[in-house]
Amino acid sequence: MDLIWLVPLFLSSLACLFLIGGILLKRSRGPVEQALVAVIATTGWIQANTALGLLNGEGRILWQQLVMAGEIVFPIALYKVGASFISEHYAENISETTWRFRALCLLGILCTGLLIAPAFLSSIGPFELHSIQGKVISLYFLVALVVGLAQLEQVLRASRDPLRYQIKFVIIGLGSLAGFAIIQSSQWDLFLQENQGFVFADGLITFFSLILIGFGLGRWHFHDMSHAVSISPQALYTSMTLLIVGGYFIIVGGLGELIRRSNWAMAESVGVLVVFTACIALIVVLSSRQVKAELRLLLARHFLGSKYDYRLKWIEVTESFRACDSVDSILDICLDLLIRTFGAQHVTTWLLYEADGRFHQVRSANIEPPPPPLPIHHQMHQLIQSQEEIIDLSRLEIAHSPEWKSFLQSTDAHLCIPLRSSETLHGFITLSRQFGDRHYRQDDFDLMTSITHYVSVQLTQARLSEERTATAKWEAVSRFSAFYLHDLKTLIAGLSMVAQNAKTHGNDPAFQESAMRTVTNTVTKLTGLINKLSVQSKSVTVEQAESFHTVNINDIILEAIRSLSSSMEEPALSMTPTLPPVSIVPDQFKQLFMNLMMNAKQSAGEAGKVRVSTVPKPGAVAITIADSGPGIPESQLRTLFQPFKTTKKDGFGIGLYQCKSIVEQSKGSIRIESQEGQGTHVHIVLPAA
C-alpha cells in the first residue's frame, strides 16, 4: 500500500500523544481524566499498529493481534469515561454502573484469553478472523461499544448548562470514535483486503474526532482562564482616555502644522492660538462629569462584557416564580434555578423552624439522606445571624469542631447565602464550587444576591398568605357559629325543663321514660352540632379574659396534674422548689399544661413515660415536658405552630397554636425538640416577674 494512504493514521497517532500530554500536564488527578487518557491511548495504539501492520506484510498476524487487543480495551475505557463522569459530577448510586464495568472487564479478559490461545499463535496459515474465537471477539466488541455509547448519551442528556457547554464536544468526539468503530468491525473483509479508501477514511475520521475531543478539553479545562484573565473597567477607562487624548493631540498638532506651513503672515501666531485653545478645551471636557459618565457608559455597552444577560435572567426569575402559591413550590423552583444558573455540583436549602429553633435541610440537589438539623449551639447559627451578604466559607477562620466538619462534608459548602427579608431570617442556601472547580466571580455574587433576595420576599409573602388564610377561617367561625346558637339554646332549654320537673315528678316512671328520651335526643343533636362545628370551624380562639397574677409555676403544674389524675398516670416530676415567681394567667396555663401532658401521654402510649421538670434560669424559669414516644416527623415540624395544621385524624389543629399564643402573651417562648425514635421535648421559658 502507498505510504500516502497511511498519513492520516500516523497523524491520528501523533494527535493522541499530544492530547495525552496535554491532559497529564494540566489536570490528571480526576477519574474522568484518567479514563480519557486510557481511551485516547488505546485509540493511538490501534491507529499506529494498523499502519505498521499494513507496512510490514510479513508480521501481519502479530500486528492484527495487537490491533484486536486495543479494540478489546477500547470499549472498556470508553464506558469508564461515562461512569466516572456520572459518579464525580452527580454523586449517584453507581452500583449498577459498577457491575456493568466489571462485567465488561471480565468479558475483555476472556476475549484476551481467546486472542492469545495457541490456535491464534499458530504461524501456519493466515490469521482467521472468521473462526469461532474471532466471532466471539467481534460480538463482544459490538455489544461493548453499544453499551459505551449508551453511557455517553446518558451523560450528555443528564448534563445541564454550563457543564453541557463545556463537555459536549468531548462527548461528541468520543461518540464518533465509537460509532465508526462499530462500522469498522463490520468491514473487516475490506480491512483484510487492504482497501486503501477505507484505511484513509479511518485515519481521517479518527483525526477529526480527536480534534473535537481536544477542542472540548480546551473549553472544559481552560474555559475558566478566559474569564479569570480580563481587563478591569478602571484599566480600560484609563486606556481609552489616553487613546482619545493622544488622538486629539495628533489631530490638533497636525492642524497647527498645516497652519504654520501656510503662507499667512500670522500663521505662527494662529498656530499657537489653535494649540492653546485646543488644550483649554480638552481640560474643560476632561473635567466634565457628564463627559466622564458618557465615556464609562460607552465602555460598559461596547467593550465590557458581563457573564450574564441580567435583563433576560431577571425575566426568567420572575416568570419562574409567577405561579408559586406555597413555600414548597418556592423552594423547588429556587433549587432548580440555582442549579441551572450557576452549575454548582451541590446545592442545599436550609430553613429555620419556629418549632425547635434549628436549621433543617429541606431541599438538596443530592440523593444522599439529609444531615441532621443544626443544633442551636452550632457555629452556623452564630455565623448566619451576624451576616447579611454572601459568606465565602473557604475564607473564614472557624474553629473546625466535629459538627462543623460534618456539615461541610455533607453539603460540600463553599458559599453560604442568607435568606433574609427585613429583620426576618428564613434560612440559608449553600453552594459548592462550580463544575471543574471553577471560582465564582462578582457577576455570580450579584446575581445570587438578587435571586435569593427575591426568594426571601416570596417566602415572606407565602407566610403572610398562610396567616391571612388562617384569619379568614377564624372570621368564618364567627359568622357561621351564630346559626347554631339558637339550636343550642333550644336544646339547653329542654334539658333545663327536665331538671326543674325532676324535683316534682322524679319518681314517676312515665316521667323518667320521657326524660330519658329527651336526654337521648338532646345528646344526639348536640353530638351532631359539635361534629358540624368541628368540620366547619376547626378553630378555637384564645380569650384574653383573666388578669395576670404573680405565682409559682410549680403550683400551677401540680394543679394540672391533680386535674388529670383520674385520666392518666402521674408523670415523673423533677421540680426545683425555689423558683422565681412569674406573671401569668393561672387558668390559661393550667389548661396549657393539661393539654401538653395529655399530648405527651398519648404520644408515649401505655408503656411510655412522661417527665415534667422545672429549673431556674437567669431572670427566667424553664419548664420541660418530655415523653418517650416515637417523636414527630421532620416534615411536620415546620408547620407545627400554624393553625389548622394537625397530624391527628380528628384534631382541630389549633392546640399548639393556642399554647404558643398563651406563652407569648406572657412574654415567654415555647420550643419543641423532636426526633423520630427519640421522643419529644417541649421547652417553655417564662420571664421572672
UniProtKB/TrEMBL annotation:
Catalytic activity: ATP + protein L-histidine = ADP + protein N-phospho-L-histidine
Keyword Kinase: yes
Keyword field contains Protease: no
Gene: prsK
Name of the protein: histidine kinase
Spans through the membrane: 6-24, 36-55, 61-82, 103-124, 136-153, 165-183, 203-222, 234-252, 264-286
EC number of the protein: 2.7.13.3
UniProt cross-references to Pfam families, sorted A to Z: GAF_3 (PF13492), HATPase_c (PF02518)
This protein's UniProt keywords: ATP-binding, Kinase, Membrane, Nucleotide-binding, Phosphoprotein, Transferase, Transmembrane, Transmembrane helix, Two-component regulatory system
InterPro entries xrefs: GAF, GAF-like_dom_sf, HATPase_C_sf, HATPase_dom, His_kinase_dom, HisK_dim/P_sf, Sig_transdc_His_kin-like_C, XrtA/PrsK
Top enzyme class: transferase
Sequence ranges assigned to domain Histidine kinase in this UniProt record: 483-689
A molecular function (GO) term: protein histidine kinase activity
Organism: Candidatus Nitronereus thalassa
